[in-house]
Write a structure and sequence with these properties.
binds adenosine-5'-diphosphate, 2 domains, about 40% helix, binds 6-O-phosphono-beta-D-fructofuranose, Rossmann fold, alpha/beta, about 325 residues, elongated, 4-stranded parallel sheet
């Protein structure tokens, strides 16, 4: 640990529920370790524009139950340019900040790596934070459990009206290029259909199964689509025109990113931040805190930010059962 004990935190890219719990732990644990915590407002934009403030206990009082992030987030085009990163580094050095925690996704970690390489002395640690659960090298990203629970509550409500009206409902989840949210939500909501980019599907096979089930008395269907497929409305029409059942679609959208963080996300936020700060005390200069096989560890930024994530094979196997008469 160097003589300089000023440590900063920022949120970058899509916000997630659990970021505020992470901020609370950051302030409390860094003070307990004899460091001075700083908040960077507005992600990398704030780092460039010198929106960097000392934080204390008062700043994190009562925020643990709030979704989003108290210190705001951004996507910064400017941070991709070396001249702006130079400005950001100068701002940090002027405040003697030599440690930086970044809550974000793989894009944010690429930026973090560059800042570390170009700064000659600033140590960085990433905390995987995205509802998409699409970061390589970690099984879990902060915010995923809350997003899944928000989706679960929405679908439980949709089921009430779907069954009352004898309709098919097509529900689109977020996830960018990844089908994780759709797949886990489909399985845990007892849905009849799940279309994600990672698993091939055959609409004819679904049609045969659904029409047979309707003859046997099934009155409604719940179907999930991942946003990556861009086919939600098409599938809604397919239910009406091919399967022969009235249908509606619903794009859950940004509500999946908000809401009261679950107990699991609050706890994971505490663990991620604790490990990030402990990593600095162990002399780590640039790493991402990852969660695998029930435990926390550290990975090189390159092994996380520049690799493609994969949904675990057991989940994909369950996903492959959809649309097949097994
Ligand atoms: P996420 O972190 O969720 O993947 P983005 O891909 O939008 O989200 O990245 C968030 C921010 O990280 C970008 O707006 C940019 O400021 C920074 N960033 C992303 N890629 C790079 C890069 N190659 N070099 C420098 N900064 C980057
Ligand atoms: O990465 C998180 C995420 O919510 C994705 O699931 C989604 O595709 C994207 O961000 C939406 O971005 P924005 O908030 O800019 O519309």
């Amino acid at each position: 640990m160097s003589e300089l004990k000023n440590i900063a935190i920022l949120c970058s890219g899509g916000d997630v529920s659990g970021m505020n719990a992470a901020l609370k732990r950051f302030v409390e644990y860094s003070i307990a370790k004899g460091m001075t915590p700083y908040f960077v407002e507005n992600g990398y934009e704030g780092l460039i524009d010198n929106q960097i403030y000392k934080a204390d206990y008062n700043d994190v009082a009562g925020i643990i139950l709030r979704g989003g992030t108290k210190i705001h987030t951004s996507r910064s085009m400017r941070f991709k340019e070396a001249s702006y990163r130079k400005q950001a580094i100068a701002n940090m050095k002027a405040l003697n900040i030599s440690y930086l925690l970044v809550l974000g996704g793989d894009g944010s970690f690429k930026g973090m790596q560059k800042l570390c390489d170009e700064s000659e002395g600033i140590a960085v640690a990433g905390i995987p934070s995205t509802i998409d659960n699409d970061i390589a090298g970690t099984e879990y990203c902060l915010g995923v459990d809350t997003a899944l629970n928000i989706i679960k509550s929405a679908v439980d409500s949709i089921r009430d009206t779907a069954s009352s009206f004898r309709r098919a409902f097509v529900i689109e989840t977020m996830g960018r290029n990844c089908g994780y949210l759709a797949l886990v939500s489909a399985l845990t909501s007892g849905a009849e259909m799940c279309l994600i980019p990672e698993v091939s599907y055959d609409l004819e096979s679904y049609k045969k199964i659904f029409q047979k089930q309707m003859q046997e008395g099934r009155g409604y269907f719940i179907a999930f689509t991942a946003e990556a497929l861009h086919n939600t409305q098409e599938i809604q029409k397919w239910f009406e025109e091919e399967v022969g059942i009235e249908s509606r679609y619903m794009v859950l959208g940004h509500m999946q990113r908000g809401g009261n963080p679950t107990v699991y996300d609050r706890l994971m936020a505490f663990h991620f931040v604790t490990h990030a700060i402990d990593g600095f005390f162990e002399g780590r200069k640039s790493s991402v805190v990852c969660y695998n096989f029930g435990g926390f560890g550290y990975k090189n930024i390159e092994d996380v930010a520049f690799k493609t994530s994969r949904i675990c094979p057991d989940l994909l196997k369950l996903g492959a059962e959809y649309g097949r008469d097994i």
